[in-house]
Automatic annotation (TrEMBL):
The lineage of its organism: Bacteria, Pseudomonadati, Bacteroidota, Flavobacteriia, Flavobacteriales. It comes from Autumnicola tepida. Residues 277-296 are annotated as: Disordered. Residues 99-235 form the Fatty acid hydroxylase domain. This is Sterol desaturase family protein. The chain crosses the membrane at residues 19-37, 57-76, 96-116, 149-169.
Length: 296
């Protein structure tokens, strides 16, 4: 088989490559413009240096995603269909219901995967690369260690075998999942009333800003990706912090100078530092409003 044919046969997915790619590219550009004109949180580090660094790490993540994670998930979905694996292969449902239920179940799977990244030390070593970013914007959404993407194949692949979704759903979910990730990491100040309304259902920038706080119990909250019902069910939702009081990052990694590409790529192989500020203090705060009440 010619190389071109081989790539087209095994690595070209129309839903993703023809439609998803442009959707993601346009979303990223629009969110970048939105966060440039209506900034939610003040920036604490040099914007362009961060963008350059984040996009370099993003390049390795996108490669791992596109060349290994996505083909693996698609082939597992096809394998599940051929070998009668997963709930949707055992119960015959109309395709609209497969879409709705499958979408929701895949989103729940990703909530659990994100939760594990925070609870299991080995996984945190990789996920930490994403969390030590000193500011949060649309480029952080792509700044993942490629090892985290590769490790996710096992968990997300297992979910596919359990659910047995059609491959087109896996690809459609992936496009919307990536778009949602760009959206909730963005530093876009959406009018408060509008965000409060949409935050009843989906994860929004203010909500995810709390997840990137240097206060440990805040980092260990708001794990959801698209729908935030998972945080509500598991009581891991925390919204009652004004955005201008949030310090983004991890307390023991405050020096922008050490966040170069080489250090970020090697980070999972070094022991994570204890959750302390450089002066040895533990970041904490007093809360005013109710936990589930979104602050401006
Ligand atoms: Zn996280």
């Amino acid at each position: 088989m010619e190389t071109v044919e081989f790539v087209k046969e095994y690595f070209y997915f129309e839903i993703l490559d023809k439609y998803g790619g442009p959707v993601l590219a346009v979303s990223a550009v629009l969110l970048f413009l939105a966060e440039s004109y209506r900034r939610l949180r003040k920036l604490k580090s040099s914007r362009w240096k961060r963008i350059k660094r984040n996009l370099s790490i993003a390049f390795t993540a996108v490669m791992a995603l596109r060349l290994s994670l996505i083909p693996a998930l698609v082939y597992l979905a096809l394998f599940a269909e051929d070998n009668n694996f997963g709930v949707f292969q055992w119960v015959q449902l109309p395709s609209w219901l497969v879409f709705v239920l499958g979408f929701v179940l895949l989103d729940y799977g990703n909530y659990l995967w994100h939760l594990l990244n925070h609870k299991i030390n080995f996984l945190w070593r990789f996920h930490n690369v994403h969390h030590i970013d000193l500011d949060l914007d649309v480029t952080t959404a792509l700044r993942f260690h490629f090892g985290e993407i590769l490790l996710s194949i096992f968990f997300r692949g297992f979910m596919i075998l359990l659910i047995g979704p059609p491959y087109w759903l896996v690809l459609t979910y992936e496009v919307i999942f990536e778009t949602a990730t760009l959206f909730h990491h963005s530093n876009w100040r959406i009018p408060y009333k509008i965000e409060k309304l949409i935050s009843r259902i989906i994860v929004t920038p203010r909500m995810h800003g709390v997840h990137h706080s240097i206060v440990h119990r805040e980092t260990n909250s708001n794990y959801s990706i698209i729908f935030n019902i998972w945080d509500r069910i598991h009581q891991s939702l925390r919204l009652n912090i004004p955005q201008d009081e949030i310090n983004i990052g991890v307390p023991s990694y405050r020096d922008p100078g050490e966040q170069n590409i080489k250090n970020l790529l090697l980070m999972p192989f070094k022991k994570p530092r204890p959750w302390l500020l450089p002066d040895g203090k533990v970041p904490d705060r007093q809360y005013k409003g109710a936990k589930g009440n979104l602050e401006p």
